[in-house]
Design goal:
single chain, about 260 residues, alpha/beta, Spore Coat Polysaccharide Biosynthesis Protein SpsA, Chain A, 9-stranded mixed beta sheet, 8 helices, about 35% helix, globular
């Protein structure tokens, strides 16, 4: 039996959280006795509302952060309450996703090597109709990172870029195997990751989480593995979509600046 934990972050998205929990229950029902699942909801909403969902096939714990700690800030807070080291896999996710019905059957049957730190599944966008993974096959150059930081510092340049180049003009088609980084909306980390790297410690409020994790894996010689047979559905930007463009650029500038200074 595989022990799996899901650390999901909620911010004023209780309807999406409910649908997510329903999809988890349905996938667990199909999995039967091959998986023991704990779901930990890190609730960034203030004041937080009660989560009334009653799971049938997993345990549910809600951890109220008391304030909006951002994505990985909330994850870290939840992991301090419930250690990921007790599980074979620890999943970090938003709540605007849905699991495929065979999700736990496929994940639990996987044989991962000791060098695998992060499993990147298919994250199929219901709005854009393609897989968000892999986020990047090869490591970003320092030049590209500095260019991104410059555009986030001067948002008008990013506006011009978005008008000239459609964000999703190049549909991805990648074979399974080693990649640089996966998409951040749904992250599957192995026990090996936490044994080598400890719990998540990213001091930035939002954005850049994928590159941060990729660099942590790289520093500890762990592999990020694209595994498309594991599938989830992405609904859309339920929480981050509520931020203004100015806030989006400010948080991204902070994240790219941190990553450049720390890892490049």
């Amino acid at each position: 039996m595989k022990k799996i934990a899901i650390y999901c972050v909620n911010y004023h998205s209780y309807d999406s959280l409910h649908d997510y929990l329903v999809s988890i229950d349905e996938a667990m029902q199909q999995a039967g006795d091959v998986v023991c699942l704990s779901v930990i909801v890190a609730d960034n909403t203030a004041p937080a509302e009660p989560v009334s969902y009653k799971p049938q096939h997993f345990s549910l714990q809600v951890v109220v952060t008391g304030d909006n700690r951002g994505y990985f800030g909330a994850v870290r807070y939840a992991m301090q309450q419930v250690s990921p080291l007790d599980y074979d896999f620890a999943i970090i996710s938003n709540v605007d996703v849905l699991l495929e019905s065979d999700f736990f059957n496929v994940l639990s049957s996987m044989q991962t090597s000791e060098s695998t730190g992060w499993i990147a599944p298919t994250i199929f966008s219901q709005t854009l109709h393609f897989d968000f993974n892999p986020q990047a096959v090869k490591r970003y150059s320092l030049r590209k990172m500095k260019m991104l930081r410059f555009m986030f510092k001067y948002p008008i340049l990013l506006k011009i870029k978005q008008k000239l180049l459609h964000q999703y003009h190049d549909i991805k088609n990648c074979k399974p195997g080693k990649i640089y980084t996966g998409h951040g909306s749904f992250i599957i980390l192995t026990r090996n990751f936490f044994q080598h790297c400890g719990i998540i410690d990213y001091p930035i409020f939002l954005y850049g989480e994928e590159i941060f994790l990729a660099e942590v894996c790289r520093r500890h010689q762990l592999i990020v593995e694209y595994t498309p047979q594991i599938r989830v559905q992405d609904i859309g930007k339920v929480s981050t979509g509520k931020f203004s463009f100015k806030s989006y650029c400010r948080y991204n500038y902070q994240s790219t600046n941190y990553i450049i200074n720390t890892y490049y």
